[in-house]
Amino acid sequence: MNLVAFQTIVTKEIIRWTRIWTQTLLPPAITMTLYFVIFGNLIGSRVGEMGGFGYMEYIVPGLIMMSVITNSYGNVVSSFFSAKYQRSVEEMMVSPVSNWVILFGFVGGGVLRGLLTGLIVTIIASFFVELKIYNAFVVVSVVFLTSVLFAIGGFLNALFARKFDDVAIVPTFILTPLTYLGGVFYSISLLPEFWQGVSKANPIIYMVNAFRYGFLGASDIDITVAFVLILAFIAALTSLSIYLLNRGTGLRA
Amino acid sequence: MTKALSISNLSKTYKNGVQALKGIDLEVEQGDFFALLGPNGAGKSTTIGIISSLVNKSGGKVEVFGHDIDSDLTNAKKMLGLVPQEFNFNIFEGVEQIIWQQAGYYGIGRKEAKKRAQPLLEQLGLWDKRKSPARELSGGMKRRLMIARGLIHDPKLLILDEPTAGVDIEIRRSMWEFMQDLNEKGTTIVLTTHYLEEAESLCRNIAIINHGEIVENTNMKSLLAKLDMETFVLDTTGLPEQLPQIQGYEVRRRDDTTLEVDVHKGAGVNGVFAALSQHNITVLSMRNKANRLEELFVRLTENKAGGQAS
Ligand SMILES: Nc1ncnc2c1ncn2[C@@H]1O[C@H](COP(=O)(O)OP(=O)(O)OP(=O)(O)O)[C@@H](O)[C@H]1O
Ligand SMILES: [Mg+2]
Question: What is the pLDDT of residues A13-65, one digit of tens each?
Fold first, then answer.
């Protein structure tokens, strides 16, 4: 394992997203502030309790998770795709960096941005609601693993993408709907039984609920299932990425 | 001795069906300065792409300093430095950042990278631009940036794909010196170029590729020796209606005052002048019709073209 190369890629990523901080760090801060004001304060006060907690308290973990997911994924998909597009990815391809290092270098950069965004959102949230942490280990491990998972997802998306439009398809048509239906804004116990079953096919439900459990100590699902699921997804997507990198899919003519 | 580069039966068919390489063999000795020439679309960049892991081969074998790219790719890559034909850096990154990163990919830490980068950037005239983002460089500077980048890990084999394209004469000359110097210090160099005088003056061995096949592979001297005829262009004050026949030479009229004369090797040009002055034709100046290598090149690549579209 070439540690210098790994560091180089991660540093390169950090330089990239700090250079364009108005496109990377600022937007989630603004969007989430709006969510907190509108859903938390204005609407939330009429909703009353959700799952036994104040509405604001209930949605904060989900919103943090939502920004972590979007930013981890978005960072890797746009950075790796533009490296492909500008062909600067060839710098890595000609050099003896292993495909593992390339994958986890980009993932590392995405996770750092995802977690930093999560932290920013958490700080903003703390102005609106008093945050209590029920289980810090669960909070940290779930947010980290989820971030890793979606960063790998972004990498795969970039490998397959041929044009800039392809970078937006998955986030728009898959990621966003699954997140909104992923229990960020409501407890699935509110749904009729049938839709509860359907919701449980949405992997994001498990991540959001496990993360919320870390804060509130309450969850719609078994959090062991959540951990197993996230780890299984990480293993599967990592294997797929390495397989595609070895074949040169989307990279070598 | 192990070859710096050894290619056997290398073939490539792209997904769109283009057969870019039809089983080529090529060997480059250690320490050589080797020219890989050929017209547009001949397969030069494809060959280089395969050697440097940017293109998947369809068949054949490639070894860089004895390291097979199929079984020992990491070591093959360590031997190799690449200066590609097309710009392939992130234009938003700074010159220095690009060089340091490349060093990092080879496991060279930041401190060591800085130490190596300075002399390289100075020699290539980029030191003053080290903080500039790559998009602010001129075309010639971008080429030199790619040369510096390709050398930061001190490769034993440097492959340059048209490094002097679009570079002004002065800079081109200094790049020649730079490459010669590098070669004298022991780096094996493979160069592609469409400036044949460049290949003629720099390279010792040469391969010409056309339509995915090697049509000539020899050393520069014996290739040039093959050229049995040279064409001269003569500017005169005026030509008569009826051109004089000159024994042993082929004479053609180009326009009212210009002549073309084919001269066989060893025949000399004295006979031409003698005959012309006999006919009261005054020669103002004389030059070679084309670079010698250029003539050979055209002949070699025309013969094989055989009506194929290119
Ligand atoms: N990525 C690709 N996909 C499909 N065909 C390609 C690709 N790259 C090159 N080709 C085709 O392969 C053939 C060889 O191209 P190559 O780039 O190797 O030529 P070259 O000798 O480098 O030419 P030039 O002097 O113009 O750079 C050409 O017919 C070209 O159109
Ligand atoms: Mg080319």
Answer: 999 999 999 999 999 999 989 988 888 778 887 888 887 888 888 889 999 99
In angstroms, how far is CA B278 from the centroid of its own chain? 44
Cβ-defined contact of B54 to A97 (cutoff 8 Å) = no
Cβ count within 10 A of residue A109: 25
Which protein residues have a CB closer than 5 Å to ligand 2 (ion)? Answer: B 44-45, 85
Q: Which two tokens stand for residue B12?
A: 């490539």
Q: 0.80 cut: is pTM over it? A: yes
As beta bridge partners, residue B205 has B34, B219
Q: Check: CB of residue A94 under 8 Å from CB of residue A139.
A: no
Residue that is written with structure tokens 């009353």 in the block: A48
Contacts of A5 in chain B (CB under 8 A): 104-107
Which residue's alpha carbon is nearest to atom 25 within ligand 1? B40
Q: How many other C-beta atoms lie within 10 A of the C-beta of residue B207?
A: 23
**CA gap A118, A233 in Å, rounded:** 21
**Interface with chain B: mutation pick from A18, A84, A91, A92, highest number of B CBs within 10 Å:** A91
What is the pLDDT, as a whole number, of residue A1?
62
Q: What average pLDDT does chain B have?
A: 91
According to the model, what pLDDT value does residue B308 have? 42
d(CA B205, CA B203): 6
Q: What is the amino acid identity at position B74?
A: T
User: Angle at the Cα of B304 (from B300 to B309), degrees rounded to 5?
Assistant: 120
Residue-wise pLDDT tens digits, B27-84: 999 999 999 999 999 999 999 999 999 999 999 999 999 999 999 999 999 999 999 9
Nearest CA to ligand 1 atom 18: B43
β-strand partners of A91: none
Which of A19, A82, A95 comes nearest B105 by C-beta?
A: A95
